[in-house]
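Hey, quick one: can you model this chain's 3D structure?
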Amino acid sequence: MAASLLRLHFHDCFVNGCDASVLLDDTPNLVGEKTAGPNLNSLRGFDVVDGIKTELEMACPETVSCADVLAIAARDSVVLSGGPTWQVEVGRRDSVTASLSMATANIPAPTSDVATLIQKFQNLGLSTKDMVVLSGAHTIGKARCSSFISRLNGGGIAAAAAADRIFLQSLQQLCSGSNGTLAHLDLATPATFDNQYYVNLLSGEGLLPSDQVLVNGGGEVGSLVQAYAMDPVLFYEDFAISMVRMGRLAPPPGSEAEVRRCCRVVN
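Sure thing. Here's the predicted structure for all 267 residues.
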């Protein structure tokens, strides 16, 4: 569940700023973001957010936004998984609308190449360094076989190095039953927030294509992967800084907003 709450915060902030738009259910007058390609059958944890919000509303009605709940829950999930902490900036407000099209366009696909990843982050005002370090969130969580099946098709296994081939063959066996089967993003320490993600990349064991391509990114990207694989303290420090930077992503000035009483619907 820790990875699910962290992912909710990411997928929220990447659409139109951190405004809890991802939590809105579809209505006759609103098509939300939950059925967008990057979110459908991927995002979980909505019930946990509902439970947190219900208790907050009992204690201090219409005070803590759903967007702030997502940001704080993401931080606490990382801490409880053994990762770093940071001071979450609060004061966000909740959107009264959502955008399926922006969710589809803005959230990086698991098949993205390095140039696409860099561009998606730059479009939001985030740097190449932010991209590499925030990708380290994939040290916890799972992904469906459908999100990395391209690594197993088209002769990819046959062309891989011997050590990589063993890893890919194990994934092929796992996914032989269904593309909906879940695999750990980090097979070595799946429930621990650590720098093993980068160690895995260097050994060819990044799960998603968009993870493994970082090794071949060259320049700043490759150097950062090497640095984080060697120095977990550096990874923790930079991850905390980049999470604060991402958490500052805000909707355009003048956007209508509120503090929702229920995170699934507007007031």
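One thing worth noting: The beta strands are 94-95, 142-144, 182-184, 257-258.
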